[in-house]
Design goal:
Elements: E1 6-8, E2 14-16, E3 19-20, H1 24-32, E4 34-36, E5 42-46, E6 49-55, E7 60-69, E8 75-82, E9 87-89, E10 96-97, E11 103-107, E12 112-116, H2 118-124, E13 128-131, E14 136-141, E15 144-147, E16 149-150
Parallel strand pairs: 1-6, 7-12, 10-16
Antiparallel strand pairs: 1-2, 2-3, 4-5, 5-6, 7-8, 8-9, 10-11, 11-12, 13-14, 14-15
């Protein structure tokens, strides 16, 4: 295949030679076979076939969230539902706020970045606390406070 004949836009939509991949099974197959080569480049590997993938922003999108709370209402864990329909637990240490106040986190054992959709971010906002004295934001999960790193705007 040609260099970057496959690319992913910031909404998690896949394109092949300029055409959006809308066939669900193909879309999921590509998402689930996304990996990195020995140089860290993002690729799709299906069997012996390998194709580099260009990514506009982050290769995954957090579509929605599931919260596990205690009977007392304390947040115990956050589960991410990604654009490839997979579900994984948020690693709170990796949560950060990027340009335009868009949250990102690492997924797939820290291999990839995921961008939060607007809907997922709105679900998370009620759990984010602001400390005006220290001018910082944090998320408390299972009794532990995680500071949200604010990435510089580009």
């Amino acid at each position: 295949m040609n260099e970057f004949s496959i690319w992913i836009d910031k909404e998690g939509r896949w394109f092949f030679q300029g055409e959006e991949i809308t066939h669900r099974k193909t879309y999921l197959l590509y998402n689930r076979n996304l990996t990195r080569d020995q140089f860290g480049r993002i690729i799709v590997r299906i069997g012996r076939e390998i194709c580099p993938v260009e990514v506009e922003d982050a290769p995954f999108v957090v579509k929605t969230l599931e919260f596990v709370t205690s009977k007392q209402g304390r947040l115990e864990s956050v589960w991410l539902i990604l654009n490839d329909e997979s579900r994984e637990q948020l690693i709170p240490e990796t949560l950060r706020i990027g340009a335009d106040h868009i949250p990102y986190c690492l997924v797939r054992n820290g291999m990839f970045e995921a961008r939060f959709s607007r809907g997922a971010y709105q679900l998370l906002v009620p759990f984010i606390q602001h400390d005006e004295k220290r001018s910082r934001f944090s998320l408390i999960i299972d009794g532990k406070e995680y500071n949200l790193t604010m990435l510089p705007s580009s």
